[in-house]
Amino acid sequence: MKKFVFRFFFFSVFCSLFYVVLILLYGTIVPASFAVNFNYFGGMGFTRQRFDEVSKIKNVDLVVAGSSHAYRGYDPRIFKKSGISMFNLGSSSQSPLQTRYVLGKYVTKLKPKLVIVDVYPVLFGVDGLESQIDLISSGLIDKDIIALSFKINNIKLYNTLLFGAFNNEFHIKKQKLSDNEGDTYIPGGYVQSFRHLQFKKTRFKQNVNISATQLEAFKAGLNELRSQQIKFVIIQAPFSRSNYASYQNNDEIDRVFSSLGEYYNFNKILNLPDSMYYDDSHLNQRGVNIYNAKLIDTLSKRGHFRRLSMNN
C-alpha cells in the first residue's frame, strides 16, 4: 500500500509538471487559431495600455468603469474642456464581476469625486469569462483576480491564468493592443474611432437576462463606493436604435437600475442616427462628441459637475 501511495504521489507530481510545461509551450508557440482551452492572444481594446497608464495617475475628478461602451464612450478630452479630469477604467466585455474588481483596485488611488458606472445590460447575463481573460492577458494578476477566477471556474481561464503568471515574470509573449484598424488610444483610457456603421445585424426580439451572481456583484460594488463616501451615477450609454429596440424588457431593466441609485438611460434621452455609430453597439467619435456634451449638461443640472468645479 505504501509503495502504491508513493508511486501515485510521484506520478501526480510528474503529471502536474508536464501539464504546466505543456501550457507554457502551448501559449508560446501555438497560433491563436488553434486555441481551444487557452486564450492569451490579446487584441481586446488597449486594456494593457490603459491599466499600465492608470498606475501613474493620481487624484482625478471622475472615474468611468464598464465595458467597451465605457472606454469607447467617454472621451477625457471633452470632459477636460469642462474642467473635469477623468480616467476611463473600461475593458472589453467587463461584467459587474470585473467592474467591482477594477473599482476596488483603483478607486482608492484615484480618489474620484464621482464615479460613472456604465451598464450594458447584456453583460449582466454572462459568466464574465471573456472579460476575466482580457484582464489576465493584460497583466492584471493578483490575489483578487485569482479568487475571482475560481469563482468563474472555467478550464480556459485557469490555463490562461497559469500562462499569464509565467508571462508576467519572463515576458515571453507580448499582447496585441487592439485588432481594430483605425482605433486610436487616447491618454485617460479612451479609444477613438471615426468609422461608421456599414450595415445592421439581423436582430430578433429577445429579453435581457440578469444573473443573480452578476447582480449581487454589482450591488456589492456600489455598496463599496458608498462605504468610501464616493458618489456614483449609473449610466446606460446609447447604442443603435435597432439593437436597443430588439430587447423587449428595457423598461424592466430600467426599474432594476433605478432602484440601485441615480440612473440615466441615454437610449431614451438621445436619438442618434446610425452615422453616429461605428457598429450597432458602439458610438464613433461624432456620436461620442454629442453624447458626452449631453451627459455633462445633464449631470451639471443635477449638481454633480458644478460641485466638482467648485472643488477644483
UniProtKB/TrEMBL annotation:
Question: Which species is the source of this protein?
Answer: Mucilaginibacter gossypii
Q: Where, by residue number, does the polypeptide cross the bilayer? A: 7-29
Q: What is this protein called?
A: SGNH/GDSL hydrolase family protein
Keyword field contains Transmembrane = yes
What keywords would UniProt list here?
Membrane, Transmembrane, Transmembrane helix
Top-level taxonomic group = Bacteria
